[in-house]
Amino acid sequence: MPVTQFATKERYKYQNGFNNHLESEAIEGAIPTAQNSPQKPPYGLYAEKLSGTAFTAPRSENKQTWLYRILPSCAHPPYQPAPESRAAQEGAAPSNLRFIPNQLRWDPFDHNDSRDLDFVSGMRLVAGAGDVTLKQGIGMLVYAAGKSMDETAAYYSADGDLLIVPQEGDLDIRTEFGWLLVRPMEICVIPRGVKYQVRLSSGPARGYALELYQGHFALPELGPIGSNGLANARDFQAPVAHFDEDCGATASEGSRLFDVTVKLNNALFTTRQAHTPFDVVGWQGNYYPYKYDLGRFNTIGTISYDHPDPSIFTVLSAPSGVPGTAVADFVIFPPRWLVGEDTFRPPWYHRNTMSEFMGLICGGYDAKRGGAGGFVPGGASLHNVMSGHGPDADSHEGARSAELKPVKVGAGSCAFMFESCLMVGVTEWGLRTCKKVQEGYSEESWGGVKTHWARPAGKEVKSHLAE
Questions:
Q1: Torsion angle (degrees, nearest 10) of CA 335, 421, 359, 266
Q2: What is the sign, positive or negative, of the torsion defined by CA atoms of 210, 142, 165, 239?
Q3: Residue 417 lies in a domain
Q4: Strand order in the sheet with 326-333
Q5: Theoretical Cys-Cys bridge with 422: which of 46, 129, 260, 413, CB 3.0 to 4.6 Å?
Q6: How many Cβ atoms sit within 10 Å of the Cβ of residue 213?
Q7: Does 307 qualify as catalytic in the annotation?
Q8: Sign of CA dihedral 87, 88, 91, 94
């Protein structure tokens, strides 16, 4: 059967909005009116509900979308373990993670072995926390891909929502809902259960990802900031409906076979079906993939004194059951003006109840040394719960003596952080196999911190015990 593609206007048309009820139809009239699942949906389509929350979740938190497709998702042979029964994420079980208090930093994760890997096979778990089977926790990942996924391949994760942060190379992502073109300095989120395929439109690709095993990402509350600032809902983009008409019901002559892979409890399973998974003619709901241009982030900062908490740089947040505490925050440090008076302007030294995994998309970061053995694009760092960290010695000395005039930092750069209230463990791949851990990171960064203490002349040390 010849393959015909349909779309609303062009391939990359988007709809704006975040967590809104959206709808899109590639053929007018594909979405039924008045009810979601009529006895006979338009054009002989099947109505299929995709739920991202429990049916009885509060209305404000309920996520669901109705898909109107040529054949339902259940029309496939049984899934079987993927070849060699290999785990999708090596060492992802909680018992295999190494929990250590030392500060860690990685050199850029390279492309040396990625030539024959696509987006799925080129993904590696660096660190994580929680238990996928209990829908609790997160996974912090990197990917390096040298080729596109096959046109007859699709993938979805039953484990969680995936936040993708490209660092090199454009990702041409086809989803059941339509197409997303995601470039460096953009991010996208693919919700749990949504099938997709990743093609490389500009050569090899590399980047970072965060898989959220519990809940969903939301925009952070703005509190006293007011109604505008940080990431605005209007700047998030969702795809429009786009489908293939390759729908042989059996593996008959002339029908293509499609390989669908699922990740369940960090193991891969696959099936081969005789119809495309990308056959959604129309959809309507509030559970869908989306992308965001980081250049649209409206940075907020001090205009008097003191360096504010990094929470003011939060793009997306996945809240926990504790108010004001996140299972995962996605935070960026884009170009911005610093004007604080009598202020140490880089991030202060601190120990945090949160775990912080940082990456660098491009340029340099004002609180960390770049160059060989430093913090450079494609690399990463991890500061676990209560592990002390802050500017390296050189950055501190420079900031301590800098002339405090208004200055714009980070021009041409963007660092980001995956921050979590969870204690994070490192996989064997992240700690040893990748061979990218920088030995002596903490000594090189803070071993040369100078002592500036000088006891004031004529001042005695007083003891309350003496009194």
A1: -140
A2: negative
A3: yes
A4: 104-106, 380-383, 355-362, 414-420, 326-333, 314-319
A5: 129
A6: 25
A7: yes
A8: negative
Tokens 């991202």 map to which residue?
52
CATH of the domain at 314: 2.60.120.10
Look at residue 455 and tell me if it is in a domain: no
* Tokens 């997709």 found at: 196
User: pLDDT confidence of 4, banded at 50, 70, 90?
Assistant: very low
In a domain, 261, yes or no: yes
Query: Is 389 one of the annotated binding-site residues?
Result: yes
pLDDT in tens, 16-61: 989 999 999 999 999 999 899 999 999 999 999 999 999 999 999 9
Reported as type and span, the H/E element at residue 442 is: helix 441-446
Sign of the torsion formed by the C-alpha atoms of 159, 162, 168 and 169: positive
Q: How many CB atoms lie within 10 A of CB 443?
A: 9
How many residues make up the chain in this entry?
A: 467
Phi, then psi, of 330 in degrees rounded to 5 = -105, 115
Based on the fold, state whether residues 314 and 233 are members of the same structural domain. Answer: no
Q: Which residues of 250-282 are buried (b: 16+ CB within 10 A; e: fewer)?
A: eeeeebbebbbbbbeebbbbeeebbbbbbbbbb
User: One of 216, 307, 383, 464 is an active-site residue; which one?
Assistant: 307
Domain end, chosen from 261, 276, 293, is at: 293
Tell whether 14 is in a known binding site: no
356 is in an annotated binding site: yes
Domain range for residue 238? 5-103+112-293
The model's pLDDT over 277-295, given as tens digits with 9 standing for 90+, comes to 999 999 999 999 999 999 9
Which pairs count as long-range contacts for 34-41, CB under 8 Å and 24+ apart, including other chains? Answer: 36/66, 37/66, 41/68
What pTM was estimated for this model as a whole?
0.94
What is the spatial distance between Cα 105 and Cα 140, in angstroms, rounded to a whole number?
A: 14
| 3 has pLDDT over 50 | no
Residue after which a domain boundary falls, among 293, 312, 332: 293
| d(C-alpha 291, C-alpha 51), whole Å | 20
